């Protein structure tokens, strides 16, 4: 399977993360990249396809913010990473976004998504890796994988959040749709892909299904409930399958089958899979109990649909097991 990855993706290295009331190591560490690269075959550098496919799903003002936020933070005399801390939850007048602090609040959903020196280059490269995998499938490959990082599925059209900046899965799905494909996104990360869902929520031309920890107990808390089914032209084109903490393969398999069956029934001709290895039993920030052999089963179930597949990497924080989990998933996908 052709795998796309760009070395600039490792350059995103926030210093710290505010977790459960204290500062800890940033969980989405660049050590994840080394672990994944060591476990998969050779990877290809993607071509640079520019900003246009990114601007097809993200707002121009948000993209400009991502490109300039770190430099503006430094220019304001700050040390460390740029991080939002004041959020415009009520908006009775147009926002004044001159100050970098105001922009960070406007374009961020949370305080776990710092912008460091290499963040823009890394998230841009990650989106280009996704577009490389799309081009491979449009060129006739039945499967291609983008070793994306930072992840993307929590990023909305005009906000970062949940360690995500540009939404590589949404960029890839849009590129496939623009090429005439009928795309179903299947998100199997532990966390609900709220950014991806939101980007396509009112559209009937891209299907979105997600299996994830119940938002009543887990991040991102406000989205991913079973009654979120899409709106307007998108009504019925969103499917949420939340599972309780502690889920094992016995709980997971029927949900995966339901998601894939719904994608086929909707008429998908191409699958876009947001793969997260954080459903693994040893994940330090997640609470499902899937095993490494289960990762192969996820890949094999997707392969069993006999449709072209573009795979995108999302989360997975048990770094010591990440390579084996990704390799198992890819092995299943090739079966
Ligand atoms: C990104 B992806 C914070 C706990 C949750 C955010 C999780 C983002 C996961 N103390 N932090 O979906 O794997
Ligand atoms: Zn996740």
TrEMBL record:
One record GO biological process: epigenetic regulation of gene expression
SUPFAM superfamilies assigned to the protein according to its UniProt record, in alphabetical order: Arginase/deacetylase
Record keyword Lyase present: no
Domain Histone deacetylase span(s) in chain numbering: 50-331
A GO term for molecular function: histone deacetylase activity
Keywords: Hydrolase, Metal-binding, Zinc
Entry cofactors: Zn(2+)
Family stated for the protein in its record: Belongs to the histone deacetylase family.
The protein, known as: Acetylpolyamine aminohydrolase
Species of the source: Aurantiacibacter luteus
């Amino acid at each position: 399977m052709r795998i796309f990855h760009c070395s600039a993706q490792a350059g995103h290295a926030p210093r710290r993360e505010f977790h459960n009331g204290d500062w800890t190591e940033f969980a989405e560490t660049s050590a994840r990249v080394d672990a994944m690269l060591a476990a998969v075959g050779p990877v290809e550098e993607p071509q640079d396809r520019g900003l246009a496919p990114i601007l097809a799903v993200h707002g121009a003002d948000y993209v400009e913010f991502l490109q300039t936020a770190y430099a503006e933070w430094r220019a304001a005399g700050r040390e460390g990473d740029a991080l939002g801390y004041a959020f415009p939850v009520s908006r009775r007048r147009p926002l004044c976004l001159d100050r970098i602090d105001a922009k960070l609040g406007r374009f961020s959903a949370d305080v776990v998504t710092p912008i460091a020196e290499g963040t823009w280059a890394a998230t841009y490269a990650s989106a280009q890796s996704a577009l490389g995998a799309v081009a491979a499938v449009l060129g006739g490959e039945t499967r291609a994988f983008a070793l994306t990082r930072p992840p993307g599925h929590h990023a909305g059209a005009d906000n970062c959040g949940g360690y995500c900046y540009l939404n590589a899965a949404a960029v890839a799905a849009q590129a496939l749709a623009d090429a005439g494909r009928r795309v179903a996104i299947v998100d199997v990360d532990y966390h609900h892909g709220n950014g991806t869902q939101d980007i396509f929520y009112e559209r009937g031309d891209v299907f979105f299904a997600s299996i994830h920890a119940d938002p009543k107990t887990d991040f991102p808390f406000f989205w991913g409930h079973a009654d979120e089914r899409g709106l307007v032209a998108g009504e019925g084109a969103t499917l949420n399958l939340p599972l309780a903490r502690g889920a094992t393969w016995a709980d997971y398999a029927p949900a995966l089958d339901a998601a894939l069956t719904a994608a086929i029934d909707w008429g998908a001709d191409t699958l876009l899979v947001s793969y997260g290895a954080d459903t693994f039993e040893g994940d330090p920030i997640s609470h499902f109990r899937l095993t490494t052999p289960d990762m192969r089963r996820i890949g094999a179930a997707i392969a069993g649909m006999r449709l072209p597949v573009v795979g995108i990497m999302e989360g997975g924080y048990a770094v010591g097991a990440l390579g084996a989990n990704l390799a198992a998933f890819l092995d299943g996908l090739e079966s």
